[in-house]
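Help needed: design a sequence for this.
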């Protein structure tokens, strides 16, 4: 497994030590997923450089973005109910839940308080009508990191480095098309993202 060489944190975003954060993430997931997370971090840092996002903030958000991904459905359902999140979430599943539940867990278990990082984690599964540059970087990096392999990934990567907003649109359009083809339920937030970034521009 390749671990990025030490990236020194200033502490400006509430996390003092990257290696310590990686250890906390490692405890939450398989090695395969950790490799994905580290790939998202590398891509997020590259995209952050191009788009005026603080590299440290991009690094932290990338490292924690899938923090909740391997939690059980029952634990996620319990959190969605107890925290009174949108109860319509309950008819969806892990692919949607782990963003919203992850945003909650990184704050309550890891003590992350930076609102943009929390928002980026929350939105990474669905996108949103309004997204910060950081949220766009994480959303896109998750889709095009080097470990991803699907027919359109090369094109998506190219667009990611040309125009971040267009990369958000490309990802949203193709994710939605994929879900429609599978005839699965679409979380309304995904439609909102599509209306804004694909049909609205
Ligand atoms: Fe995810
Ligand atoms: Fe991910």
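Sure. Designed sequence:
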């Amino acid at each position: 497994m390749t671990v990025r060489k030490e990236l020194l944190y200033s502490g400006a975003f509430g996390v003092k030590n990257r290696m310590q954060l990686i250890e906390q993430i490692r405890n939450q997931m398989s090695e395969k997923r950790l490799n994905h997370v580290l790939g998202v971090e590398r891509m997020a840092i590259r995209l952050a450089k191009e788009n005026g996002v603080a590299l440290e903030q991009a690094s932290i958000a990338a490292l924690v973005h899938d923090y909740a991904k391997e939690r059980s459905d029952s634990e996620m359902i319990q959190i969605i109910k107890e925290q009174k999140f949108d109860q319509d979430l309950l008819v969806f599943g892990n692919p949607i839940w782990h963003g919203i539940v992850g945003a909650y867990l990184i704050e309550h278990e890891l003590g992350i308080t930076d609102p943009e990082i929390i928002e980026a984690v929350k939105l990474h599964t669905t996108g949103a009508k309004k997204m910060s540059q950081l949220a766009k970087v994480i959303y896109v990096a998750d889709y095009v990191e080097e470990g991803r392999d699907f027919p359109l990934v090369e094109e998506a990567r190219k667009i990611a480095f040309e125009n971040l907003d267009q990369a958000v649109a490309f990802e949203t359009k193709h994710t939605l098309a994929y879900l429609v083809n599978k005839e699965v339920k679409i979380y309304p937030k995904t439609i909102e993202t599509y209306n804004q970034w694909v049909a609205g521009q």
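Residues 18-148 form a domain with the Hypothetical protein af1432 fold (CATH 1.10.3210.10).
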